[in-house]
Every structure is written in C-alpha cells, then in structure tokens.
Amino acid sequence: MMKFKHYTIAVHDLDSAVENYKNLFGMEALGNREHNDIGNFDSVSMGYNGETVLRLIQSSSDDTAVARLMKSRENEFNPHGEGVYLLAFEADDLDTLAAQIESNGGRITRLPGRTNFFVHPTSSNFGFMEIMPKRD
C-alpha cells in the first residue's frame, strides 16, 4: 500500500516561489535551501507546523532533467515551464512494491545506497514518482 507524502514543483526562481507560497498559502520554509548533487537542483521544503506539504526545486543548470522538462512545457501561459515535477509516496514494503511494478512491465530506478526508488514516468501515465519507506 502507498500513502501520498508530498509533491514537488519545478520553478524558475526558487526565492520568488518560496515567498509566493508564504504569502498566498501561509506556508513556512522548513529548513534552508539545499542542493541535490544527483539531480543538480536547489530545493526548499514548504509546509505547516514542521510537516512538508511540497518541495520547490530550481535547476542549477540548463542540462538537467528538471530543466529539460520545464523547457518542454514552455508556452504562452507558462513561459518558464513551471509545474508539478514529482509525486512522493511512502510504502509499507518497498521491495514487494518494486517487484510488483517490474513484474507488470513497469520501470523503476534505485540509486546506490538509498532505500527509496523512482518509478519512471512512462510506467505511471507520465507522473514521475518517488517511493520511500514508511516512517513511524
């Protein structure tokens, strides 16, 4: 069983987006701006009372998965291609879920040394998903 955890929004200006979510929704930044070396992006978790509701991410270069997706979404109504990038879920038994996905033709990616895994967008109607262990 999976339980929704949070979602990630790709933005072109992280500082502006943080202020926007503070002003419009009353969210607070949970911690400082962080850099993800694997995806080459900066992020800030946003939420209420210490609970993450969403993460805002900004690509650190033009040659990242985040930047390429944003570029592909650019249009007159969304000139920077911003939008939902990833949906994060918790699961009771990651190995069983991963085996189920793969045995039914789905693609997953596991990174060395990490318990979580990612479901390739082509396996989930183009929703990029991260599955992580359930926290008590």
Question: What is the secondary structure topology, with strand pairs?
Answer:
Elements: E1 2-10, H1 14-25, E2 28-29, E3 34-36, E4 41-48, E5 51-59, H2 65-73, E6 83-91, H3 94-103, E7 108-110, E8 117-119, E9 129-133
Parallel strand pairs: 1-5, 6-9
Antiparallel strand pairs: 1-6, 2-4, 3-4, 4-5, 7-8, 8-9
Task: Summarize this entry quickly.
The protein has helices spanning 14-25, 65-73, 94-103, and strands spanning 2-10, 28-29, 34-36, 41-48, 51-59, 83-91, 108-110, 117-119, 129-133. It contains 3 helices and 9 strands; from the N terminus they run E-H-E-E-E-E-H-E-H-E-E-E.
How large is the share of residues in beta strands? 35-45%
Give the proportion of residues in helices.
Answer: 10-25%
**Rough shape?**
globular
Q: How many strands?
A: 9
- Secondary-structure element series: EHEEEEHEHEEE
**Biggest β-sheet description:** 9 strands, mixed
The assigned CATH architecture is Roll
**Rounded average pLDDT:** 95
Please identify which CATH superfamily we are dealing with.
2,3-Dihydroxybiphenyl 1,2-Dioxygenase, domain 1
Radius of gyration over C-alpha positions, nearest whole angstrom: 16 Å
Count of structural domains: 1
Classified by CATH, the class is Alpha Beta
Please give the alpha-carbon distance between the first and last residues: 15 Å
Low-confidence stretches: none
Number of helices: 3
